[in-house]
Backbone:
């Protein structure tokens, strides 16, 4: 039996005289699936990124559905590597587009299910029709402004460069161990050139050349990390990052953590309540209640993983550097005397509470109860 999701043919699935279209975005080809909600869907293949072809397909789909040229077009695609440029282009063309969280799309739970671009395109189109009928079928991703989207590049590049720096350092250390060389200095650090000049001759020439090339790449990465760090500190000194500076005033939160929280969460997102904040971070609980079965499955992990991982780190630091705060005292009462597993559970709960406290701190200037600020620099 085919598992293709058929487009509903009922009269109430769509507004009369409007076109609905889904995009299945691939690296080389895109598949467009379009219908007015009453006719069988039309499918088109275009080269990835060919906006002229997309516009032509919209016109063809309108003609096939016997719609007016000015008929409203609704579309959707899954959030992915193409980011937001397609969404913004569609909006400029007058298309009502939404970007959906791919993890929120319902799937067949059979062990083996058919999957193809055609099936996925039909599925998205059917869900788009249900979405416009008023059903809650998926999560729509909130669009950042172009400026907010660009502002996230700095700390993400820095995180990637930091990983590269560690990889180069570990690689050099592993190569040296092949000849029982174990540097007592930091590889790539200030004393590294002198150490290498004394011990490099103990390494065979081909391996020595490899290590020197690895060292050159390490030096370049460290130079780029330093340049980004200097740029961020200069922006902070010039008053261009007020929210980052406000977060960094709290003990236990440094420049790195404040920057990530500002650019990933608090700088451009707006939350109506703490439940929305917890859902955005993936720190919302996911209970499973069916019949006699009552199970707590832990946090959803469906939100921003960078911010979530950082908040867990900050929660541990908060316990150490903010011992008199209400949050630390709550954790100590509930989890300090428990075993390692319960402390790990507790730190997730503390991370969620800390996120809410930081949100209120930024929104209303309400310093977390019992927390202290860093001393002002004269």
Residues:
């Amino acid at each position: 039996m085919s598992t293709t999701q058929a487009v509903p043919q009922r009269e109430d699935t769509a507004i009369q005289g409007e076109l609905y279209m889904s995009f299945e975005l691939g690296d080389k080809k895109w598949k467009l699936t379009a219908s007015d909600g009453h006719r069988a869907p039309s499918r088109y293949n275009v080269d990835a990124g060919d906006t002229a072809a997309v516009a032509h397909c919209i016109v063809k789909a309108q003609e096939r559905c016997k719609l007016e040229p000015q008929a409203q077009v609704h579309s959707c695609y899954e959030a992915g590597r193409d980011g937001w440029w397609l969404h913004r282009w569609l909006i400029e063309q007058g298309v009502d587009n939404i970007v959906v969280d791919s993890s929120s799309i319902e799937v067949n739970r059979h062990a083996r299910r058919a999957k193809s671009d055609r099936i996925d395109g039909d599925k998205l189109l059917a869900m788009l029709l249900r979405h416009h009928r008023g059903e809650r079928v998926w999560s729509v991703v909130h669009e950042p402004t172009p400026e907010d989207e660009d502002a996230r590049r700095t700390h993400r590049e820095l995180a990637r460069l930091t990983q590269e720096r560690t990889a180069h350092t570990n690689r050099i250390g592993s190569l040296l161990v092949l000849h029982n060389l174990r540097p007592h200095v930091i590889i790539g650090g200030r004393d590294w050139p002198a150490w290498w000049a004394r011990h490099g001759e103990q390494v065979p020439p081909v391996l020595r050349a490899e290590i020197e090339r690895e060292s050159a790449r390490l030096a370049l990465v460290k130079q780029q990390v330093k340049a980004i760090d200097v740029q961020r500190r200069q922006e902070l000194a010039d008053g261009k990052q007020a929210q980052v500076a406000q977060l960094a005033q709290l003990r236990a939160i440094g420049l790195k953590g404040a920057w990530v929280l500002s650019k990933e969460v608090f700088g451009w997102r707006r939350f109506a309540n703490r439940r929305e904040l917890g859902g955005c971070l993936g720190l919302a609980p996911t209970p499973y209640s069916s019949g006699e079965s009552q199970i707590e499955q832990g946090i959803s992990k469906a939100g921003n993983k960078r911010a979530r991982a950082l908040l867990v780190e900050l929660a541990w630091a908060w316990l150490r550097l903010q011992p008199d705060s209400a949050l630390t005292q709550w954790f100590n009462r509930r989890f300090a005397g428990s075993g390692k597993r319960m402390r790990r559970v507790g730190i997730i709960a503390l991370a969620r509470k800390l996120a809410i406290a930081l949100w209120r701190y930024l929104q209303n200037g309400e310093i977390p109860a019992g927390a202290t600020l860093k001393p002002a620099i004269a």
